[in-house]
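User: Show me a protein chain along with its predicted structure.
Assistant: Here is one chain, sequence first, then structure tokens.
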Amino acid sequence: MRLETHPILEVKRPEPFTFFFQGQELLAYPGETIASALFAHGIRVFGRHHKDGAPQGIFCANGQCAQCLVLADGRPVKACMTLVRPGMQIAPLDGLPQPPPSPAQLVLGEIEEIEVEVLVIGGGPAGMSAAVELGKLGIKTLLVDDKHRLGGKLLLQTHRFFGSQEAVFAGTRGIVIAEKLASEVRAQKSVEVWLNSPALAVFSDKKVGVLKEGRRYVLVRPKILLVATGARERSLLFPGNTLPGVYGAGAFQTLVNRDLVRAGHRLFVVGGGNVGLIAAYHALQAGIEVVGLCEALPECTGYKVHKDKLLRLGVPIYTSHTVLAAHGHDHVEGITIVQVDEKFQPLPGTEKTFACDTILIAVGLDPVDEFYRKAREFGIPAFACGDAQEIAEASAAIFTGRIAGRKAAQVLGYRVEVPAEWERTAEILKSKPGKVHALPTPPALPVFPVIHCAQEIPCDPCASVCPLGLIQVDPTDIRKPPRFSGARQCSGCGRCVAFCPGLAISLVDFRRDPANPTVSVPWEFGPDKLQPGEKVLGVDWEGKALGEAEVQGMAQVPGADHTWLVRLKVPRDWAVQVAGIRLRVREKAGVPVASLPIPEEAVVCRCERVRASEIRALIRQGVRDLNEIKAVTRAGMGACGGKTCRNLILRLLREEGVPPEEITDFVTRPLFLEVPLGIFAGMEEP
């Protein structure tokens, strides 16, 4: 299941080594997590739940739940966060883990305490940008992150970013932006970075507990706490929702784009926001078939250009549909979706079932802001940025991180400004998709670009890369759609086609053959997939079939970073309409799934396997306190601390008609992550 080639990412692995799963010798590569190494061998079930024997596997792939627990050399560890080592003995966790044997002599060390001016929690786009601003001022800053590389979700983003090219690297791939920002962080002499170092808790004595390098407990006393911890994905309630193979976009992209492991063969996506649309496109690039995508709203909420890319490639998109059930025994084998009315109620008789082995849930994000809220509660000056402040695109996180870094410096007494235009830019970058405009009439010129981007979104690379300045975006508001002026003759260089993040520009050239012009369209699936003379299906910007087109050749614009231009020979009458090509015929809806068992009722609390019926019964008895629900059912008492089930319980309360003012929320536990108790006494992890 490892990827051997990828159209964007370089697949280059060092020498492998062996490890063991249930006594079977397997191969792994340096830098792989246990989870990715097991997935690479087709192993999805990592253990069984102690309560009902339900299969357990990857869910968040971010260390915030305990679904992927395994025994590694006899110790329970999170497979998604633990690197596999040569000779490691891995075993499934069937039931509750047993405590490891007590050492003959317990060695406890002193708890180190350090002071810094600013502690930044989170090494993603916001945290790195904040650290760079602080470092430029020489402010003593500590940046901690729970992963083994800086970059956060940027490491998972192989697509080009939207936004402002001048302000936030728009037109550059997320993986490249991660490298640029990480290099800037490392160049700051006053910034220290701790990787594999999760923050555990913010305490009332104004100290923050950090598990340094995953081994040693350290207390950090910052003058300012800057929280850039990103977001966690929301989940959904439906029968079969905990089957291995049901997980969020972050987990899916971690496997595919970071670890280069094919997460499945046939994928269905639930959710039509940017996260779901982009993840579906990433799946196609990894050679995974996307059998469909559904969105409960009448229209996808992500950028239209992302949706259009999928339509052009033949992915069926079902709006006003939601998931009804996942099917399978030990792993996903199929999904049933259903059409919903304006009140999101299922319409009987509209069910559609698809065979698939992976279901990606992309139904929104919640800020990971626990550290920020605790800091405010305990009187620690604190700032939140990126998704921890407000859910938006990564381009916005870069800018809000810069702003938060400067604001922290101001509190420390440094004379530094936060320009008013920065605040304005941040608000523009955080904008939701806006109005869709009619496409302009193409000009009567020998060669010209056709811009298929008609929605108001913050983006300007096409204007920035045109060497003749013929494409214009309003500099005061880059959300307005770009326009081709035609004031001068277009040179036909194709830079606008190659650098458009939405792949929403084509280039029409009548100069060689006015009757059958050449149209160049963007292509991000590698040059080896198409051959000159090959016949393909030309489609318009929304995937409507136009007719047969002939591939004349491939070209690459210098600096375009794996985006190719496919030159198509097409009839004159639809030359301005063609926006892409489709290589396969769209599947019929409703591929039947044979002989699948009927799924059980939806599970609300994954950690303790608490079902919706148990919680609904308590709500109908008059229970309004989430802590009482926890005491009776154990929902929220598991390893993740209620990070996933809290919102689902609140949803059940809403569905039962309980007003928000009657609800008492969970009393949150002080620790963000579970760690061995000995750590707090100075014991080091092996």
